[in-house]
Amino acid sequence: MKLPADSTILLVEDNHINQRLAVLTINVLALKCDVASNGREAFEMYQEKKYNLILMDMQMPVMNGVESTKMIRAFEKESGSSHRAYIVALTGSEPSEMKDICLEAGMDDFIEKPIRTEWLRTLLA
Ligand SMILES: [Mg+2]
């Protein structure tokens, strides 16, 4: 999967250190991103702005990554727009069954944290 180089990016991460690290990694490629601190916030922001890429942490307070993704996918369906965000789960030490849960929720891919510059460079061709 390749996304446009000018993709709008939403980072969804509750941990401040991980948040800072991810933003720095994104900035290394001269890219910018908006930041949400939980799944609920991400869903609200997505309703306002059609992000191309959503980097979604799994474990967050208020609303986790799986629930947020389900809501985003339902919103996309209901809005009738052809826009579809590419959602990547950011996993920590979650068990491997998480992979199936991510895909079932409507995520497109999953990577282990931290986000690597090379991976992002390849995705945003
Ligand atoms: Mg977390």
Task: Please name the defining characteristics of this protein.
single chain, alpha/beta, 125 residues, binds magnesium ion, 5-stranded parallel beta sheet, 18% strand
User: If strands are numbered along the chain, what order do they take across the biggest sheet?
Assistant: 2-1-3-4-5
Q: Bin the strand percentage.
A: 15-25%
Poorly predicted residue ranges? none
CATH architecture: 3-Layer(aba) Sandwich
- Terminal residue distance: 9 Å
Q: What is the number of independent domains?
A: 1
The average pLDDT value, as a whole number, equals 94
The topology string of helices and strands comes to EHEHEHEHEH
Estimated structural class: alpha/beta
Q: What does the main sheet amount to?
A: 5 strands, parallel
- Are any ligands bound, and if so which? magnesium ion
Please name the CATH topology.
Rossmann fold
Q: Percent of residues in helical segments?
A: 40-55%
Q: What's the count of strands?
A: 5
- What is the name of the CATH class? Alpha Beta
Q: Give the overall silhouette.
A: globular
